[in-house]
């Protein structure tokens, strides 16, 4: 089945910023759409998101150049190709761009095309995307990590730590994880309203609190879990995304809220101390992206009892993941399609992570679209975990709800092991 045309349009993400949508059409008239998300706390090793930089339009953020690459050079390369050869198509796109970071054509142009073709292939086969991407092997429903409080770059830096999330540790099914989350999310609203500490909603839909210390958020989160009727650390664990690259400047880590400054050793000690003090089961980016020694010391101290996820640290880049595996800097990898720029490379990053006995966590971006490709990707690859932000705003709920639909489609083939995924990879939650 041949691809007969590519079209592209500028749409808007959940922050109201321009992004790319690509539409691939096949010889039988089947279409597939690829909608590209966009980050804010981006790692320096991510593939390039091409923006026009014309300050007079959309504050420099328009993507018209990327669109013209899709309908120009990329279309010439792609038209006539077999829609079912995703690997060959992605390899051709990488070669056509010719740069390590996809900076010539733009990772947004390339990824939009790659996703549109993957979706068109599924549509042509009349299969749900997860069946097509996973070639019938994807049956594991993910354990969600869901944001309750948001901070960092997603809430104007009011709280230094970016994501305060929960994981439903004893849930027996995917549905039950959402029930637990819903209960905690609404309990947190009640607590914040009563205390008069609600400043608004952060970019990923979590509450944006007015606290004086980062650790005050732990206390509010623990109170929310208890108000919802659960025991922190037993039914519900805390998961953090420190996004420490954003806190690292001129060789030091800074918590601006508390006016505290740390060297690498001191910041690692702070992270380790938090895991000892609070019911934390997972930490993402506890150290800055290139602080390899800092990562190693955190991994050595708490890697046996806590998931340590590299986001900016790995940027879904197999070369960086392999370096991390060799140096033992983490035990999990955040997976974001637009950090690397093709569907094939994203799946390869997941496979490499799994081969090392590490855990892949499929993730949204802070700037999202209504598309739910990542829900399918998580199930297709049996990744076991999904991170999409909070439990509000439809660009987030679209993903959580899509997993419910996938569960129905799988019927009795659906599997759920929840937090069992941790012990599978040698992490013993304490
Ligand atoms: P980003 O945030 O999409 O702004 O990078 C998400 C994350 O850090 O995990
Ligand atoms: Zn992150």
Write the layout of secondary structure elements.
Layout: E1 3-12, E2 18-26, E3 31-35, H1 64-78, H2 86-97, H3 107-124, H4 129-133, E4 143-150, E5 163-168, H5 174-195, E6 198-201, E7 207-209, H6 214-227, E8 236-241, E9 248-249, E10 252-255, E11 260-262, H7 264-277, E12 280-284, H8 292-302, E13 307-310, H9 318-327, E14 332-335, H10 337-340, H11 343-355, E15 359-363, H12 373-380, E16 385-390, H13 394-410, H14 420-424
Parallel strand pairs: 4-16, 8-12, 12-13, 13-14, 14-15, 15-16
Antiparallel strand pairs: 1-2, 2-3, 4-5, 5-8, 6-7, 9-10, 10-11
Helix pairs in contact: 1-2, 1-3, 2-3, 5-6, 7-8, 9-11, 12-13
Bound molecules: 2-phosphoglycolic acid and zinc ion (ZN).
Give structural notes:
The chain has 430 residues and is of the alpha/beta class. It has two domains: 3-126, Enolase-like, N-terminal domain (Enolase-like, domain 1), CATH 3.30.390.10; 143-424, Alpha-Beta Barrel (TIM Barrel). The chain is 39% helix and 20% strand. The chain has 14 helices and 16 strands. Strand 13 (307-310), helix 9 and strand 14 (332-335) form a beta-alpha-beta unit. Helix 1 (64-78) packs across helix 2 (86-97) and helix 12 packs across helix 13. The radius of gyration is 21 Å and the shape is globular. The chain starts with a strand and ends in a 6-residue tail after the last helix. The structure holds 2-phosphoglycolic acid and zinc ion. The site of zinc ion (ZN) has 6 residues, from loops.
């Amino acid at each position: 089945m041949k691809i007969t045309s590519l079209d592209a349009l500028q749409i808007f993400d959940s922050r109201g910023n321009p992004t790319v949508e690509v539409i691939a059409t096949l010889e039988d008239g089947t279409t597939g759409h690829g909608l590209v998300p966009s980050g804010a706390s981006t790692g320096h090793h991510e593939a390039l998101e091409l923006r026009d930089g014309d300050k007079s339009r959309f504050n420099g953020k328009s993507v018209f150049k990327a669109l013209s690459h899709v309908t120009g050079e990329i279309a010439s390369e792609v038209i006539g190709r077999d829609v079912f050869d995703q690997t060959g198509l992605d390899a051709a796109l990488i070669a056509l761009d010719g740069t390590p970071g996809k900076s010539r054509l733009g990772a947004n142009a390339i990824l939009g095309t790659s996703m549109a073709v993957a979706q068109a292939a599924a549509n042509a086969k009349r299969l749900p995307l997860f069946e097509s991407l996973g070639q019938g092997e994807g049956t594991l429903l993910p354990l969600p990590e869901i944001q309750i409080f948001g901070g960092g770059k997603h809430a104007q830096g009011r709280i230094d730590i970016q994501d305060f999330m929960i994981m439903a540790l004893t849930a027996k099914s995917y549905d039950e994880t959402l029930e637990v989350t819903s209960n905690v999310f609404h309990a947190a609203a009640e607590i914040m309203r009563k205390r008069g500490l609600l400043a608004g909603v952060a970019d990923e839909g979590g509450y944006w609190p007015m606290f004086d210390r980062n650790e005050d958020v732990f206390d509010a989160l623990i109170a929310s879990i208890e108000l919802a009727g659960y025991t922190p650390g037993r039914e519900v664990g805390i998961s953090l995304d420190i996004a420490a690259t954003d806190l690292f400047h001129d060789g030091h880590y800074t918590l601006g809220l508390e006016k505290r400054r740390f060297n690498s050793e001191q910041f690692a000690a702070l992270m380790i101390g938090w895991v000892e003090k609070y019911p934390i089961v997972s930490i993402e980016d506890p150290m800055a992206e290139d602080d390899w020694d800092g990562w190693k010391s955190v991994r050595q101290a708490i890697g046996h009892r806590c998931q340590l996820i590299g986001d900016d640290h790995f940027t879904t880049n197999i070369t960086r993941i392999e370096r991390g595996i060799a140096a033992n800097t983490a035990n999990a990898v955040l997976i974001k399609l637009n950090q690397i720029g093709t569907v094939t490379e994203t799946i390869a990053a997941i496979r490499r992570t799994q081969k090392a006995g590490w855990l892949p966590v499929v993730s949204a971006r802070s700037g999202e679209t209504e598309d739910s490709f990542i829900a399918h990707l998580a199930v297709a690859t049996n990744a076991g975990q999904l991170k999409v932000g909070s439990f509000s705003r439809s660009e987030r709920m679209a993903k959580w709800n899509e997993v419910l639909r996938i569960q129905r489609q799988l019927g009795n083939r659906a599997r759920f092991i929840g937090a069992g995924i941790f012990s599978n990879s040698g992490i013993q939650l304490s």
